[in-house]
Amino acid sequence: MEGEREVEYHSKDFEWEELREEVEKDPSLRHHLLPFDPPVPPSSPSPPPLLATDAWTSFYKRHFTGRFFKERRYLLKEFPELVNCGESCKVLEVGCGNGSTALPILRGKQSIVIYACDCSAEALEIAKGMTTTVDGVSTKHRFYPFLHDISVTCFPNWLFCNYCRKNSQTKLFNFPSVRENKVEDLKDLSGICCCIGGVDFVTMIFTLSAVPFEKMPHVIAECWSILKPGCFLLFRDYGLYDLTMLRFPPIQKMGFREYMRSDGTLSYFFSLDVVRDLFCGAGFIELELEYCCVRSVNRRNGKDMRRVWVNGKFQKPM
Q1: pLDDT digits (tens, 9 = 90+) for 37-63
Q2: Domains plus CATH for the chain?
Q3: What is the DSSP letter of 196?
Q4: Cα–Cα distances in Å, from 119 out to 79, 125, 177, 208, 278?
Q5: Rounded CA gap, 182 and 177, in Å?
Q6: Distance CA 117, CA 1 (A)
Q7: 160, 176, 210, 308 — which has fewest CB within 10 A?
Q8: By the 8 A CB rule, do 305 and 298 touch?
Q9: 318, exposed or middle or buried, with CB in 10 Å at 0-12, 13-18, 19+?
Q10: pLDDT (tens digit, 9 = 90+) per residue, 250-287?
């Protein structure tokens, strides 16, 4: 789905502007370009839509083997900062899914520690299983998954408490380790409850698109809040006019560039301008932002597939 050969992740197989012109000239794709008009409520009440947490729980129950997503080996080439960082580097993976993002990071940097959250307990169980069976790489005390739905609540204080946020620019802390979902003995010399001191990286890989658009500013603001000053958020998600978007029929449109799959999960398709407005509006500095355009061929039917993703690197100012 996201390409089968590692080299394809880093190529520019076609120009996005050419794809845009083609899509905008195609009458059969016109519904993707129009503003969203909410449907008229039916006279008889319809069953409530599936909650996002329930939808993703059902999704991972169907794909419990963890083979639905392949390991994202392209990440370290796309985001080399993850292997070039210091020895005590901490990463928060938002929406970790089955661990396909965490695995290459754990392999690529032996000293890195990953805290990984997801709204689905089933996803976390799959991720735990995948990360404990990595050949030749020890993940003990390096991978800490915890259940959390960032679209509806704030990050827990053990990631970065208010006291440490206020002192993050003037004081260096040496923090003990975190076991599973609990913080053990996190107290500074003043006796004030402490935390892990924030993280050096936040990774959001195909996560934000699954959040309702109106909740995206909250999610990004929360990511900002647990990053140390000067540190980075690494972003990759579905781009505008990706093949997946163009396959959605009008009935599955839930908003402007926002769609619901048949299993109840959401998918938003980002333009560069929307990503820029969301992250820079939250206070981030844009370092890199581009479309990644990959062409591949479906082996079963021989059809040409043009995939579009958005890659972004953002920094929290000092």
Answers
A1: 776 555 555 444 445 666 656 655 555
A2: 14-25+50-315 (3.40.50.150)
A3: S
A4: 25, 12, 23, 13, 22
A5: 10
A6: 23
A7: 176
A8: yes
A9: exposed
A10: 999 999 999 998 888 899 999 999 999 999 999 999 99
Tokens of 128: 């735990």
Query: Which amino acid, one-letter code, is at 250?
Result: P
Q: Tokens for 188?
A: 């500074």
Q: Which two tokens stand for residue 83?
A: 């292997």
Q: Using alpha carbons, select from 48, 51, 56 the residue that is nearest to residue 98.
A: 56
Phi, psi dihedrals of residue 302, rounded to the nearest 5°: 75, 10
Q: How far is CA 158 from the centre of its chain?
A: 21
What distance in Å separates the CA atoms of residue 313 and residue 98, rounded to the nearest whole number?
A: 23
* CA distances (Å), origin 65, targets 100, 130, 157, 314: 12, 10, 33, 33
C-alpha distances in Å from residue 304, one per residue of 49, 296, 307: 34, 6, 10
Q: Rounded CA gap, 292 and 206, in Å?
A: 14
pLDDT of the residue at 120: 86
